[in-house]
Amino acid sequence: MPNKTSSPTDRTVPGDGVSLHARDWGGDGAPVVLLHGLASNARIWDGVAQRLADAGLRVAALDQRGHGESEQPAAGYDFATVCRDLELALLALGVERPVLAGHSWGANVALQYAAERAGAVAGLVLVDGGFIGVADWPGMTRELARERLAPPRFAVPLEDWLARAGRFAPGAGRGGWVRDFLRAGVDVDDRGVARSRFRFDNHMQVVDALYDQRPSALYPLVGCPVLLCPAAEDELAAAKQDAAERALRLLPDARATWFEDTMHDIPLQRPAELAAEVARFVKEATNRG
Fold first, then answer.
1. How many distinct structural domains can be found in the chain?
2. Quick one: which of 21, 216, 283, 287 has the most CB atoms within 10 Å?
3. What is the mean pLDDT of residues 138-150?
4. Is 5 exposed, middle or buried (0-12, 13-18, 19+ CB in 10 A)?
5. H/E element holding 211?
6. Three-class DSSP category at 75
7. In the beta sheet, which residues pair with residue 256?
8. Residue 69: helix, strand or coil by DSSP?
9. Residues 212 and 128 in one domain
10. Do residues 53 and 164 both lie within one domain?
11. Lowest mean per-residue pLDDT among 1-15, 29-43, 75-89, 125-139
12. HSE-up of residue 13 (Cα within 13 Å, Cβ side)
């Protein structure tokens, strides 16, 4: 990738009755919009987005409702509302027919958006999400899903929370972008104690929506190229293998790139490799017209 040539602008854009935050790298190339996962935020994409922008693409990353610097209402975490948020944000950003890249829950949002809006998306990148429904996990029930996907309740000194950055990508040390990602996910009280910014009840609304979504029913409705980017190293690896193979059969135009020796948070752990893969896919997808 070329040397750094651009930096993002933080913008407020409208959603469906809520103000959303976006990081906008600008640019005149093919548009790429990046969606984070549950209890995450747009800054998880900083290591990927900068590389995509430096490769000449038009790049923006969105804080979905309740996350990062976006407003957090008490409702609206169903897919219909979150996709309407995305639709309005894209209009405000002046982005048409982007490649949507989503991580985890963000991949499920991107999939739902593309399936319901024919022709609105030039391509989909599903990063360790969007190809295995929560209800399809082995032995899963709604009650078990709510138990397994409930957020941890924590209250820790901010510096202890930020020290977790060292587990992830190079450059994640003091002052690095991974620390910025971690800081954007918490509220800090006047004693310096950090707690999750995304509230428990809202988190559980997303879990219920994920349980009710059936990705395989959406695949035949997707009319754009799709890139699956599964992480190979976790307890769901076998189930993901089966789900990815099913997705490749049912999606009209899809391929997969597996990230070996990598766990769920690929944008944190392998930003350079993921950016290179996304950039190649954007070129392929947009050259098809």
1. 2
2. 21
3. 93
4. exposed
5. helix 200-212
6. coil
7. 228
8. coil
9. yes
10. no
11. 1-15
12. 26
Note whether 54 and 131 are same-domain residues: yes
Residue 143 covered by a domain: no
- Average pLDDT (59-77) is 98
Amino acid at 171: G
Alpha-carbon gap, residue 144 to 176, rounded angstroms: 36
User: By three-state DSSP, how is residue 103 classified?
Assistant: strand
Terminal Cα distance for the chain, rounded = 24
Q: Which residues on neighbouring strands pair with residue 125, listed in sequence order?
A: 101, 227
Q: Shortest CA distance to 130 belongs to which of 103, 97, 98, 100?
A: 103
Strand, helix or coil at 188?
strand
Query: What are the tens digits of pLDDT across the range 222-280?
Result: 999 999 999 987 777 787 888 999 999 999 899 999 998 888 999 999 999 999 999 99
Q: What is the mean pLDDT of residues 8-32?
A: 96
Sequence length of the chain is 289
191 assigned to some structural domain: yes
Sequence-ordered list of residues with C-beta below 8 angstroms from that of 19, at least 6 positions apart, any chain: 12, 13, 70, 71
Q: Assess if residue 103 is contained within a domain.
A: yes
CB contact burial 77-114 (16+ within 10 A = b; e otherwise): bbbebbbbbbebbbeebebebbbbbbbbbbbbbbbbbb
Answer for the pair 14, 20: CB distance below 8 angstroms, yes or no.
yes
Kindly report the average pLDDT of the chain as a whole number: 92
Q: What is the DSSP string of 10-68?
A: EEEEE-SSSEEEEEEEE-SSSEEEEE--TT--GGGGHHHHHHHHHTT-EEEEEE-TTST
Give me 71's structure tokens: 């407003």
Least Cα distance to 285 among 128, 130, 114 occurs for 114
Which pLDDT value is given to residue 169?
A: 56
Phi, psi for 224 (deg, rounded to 5):
-125, 165
Residue at 129 is within a domain: yes
Q: Which domain holds residue 119?
A: 9-135+200-287
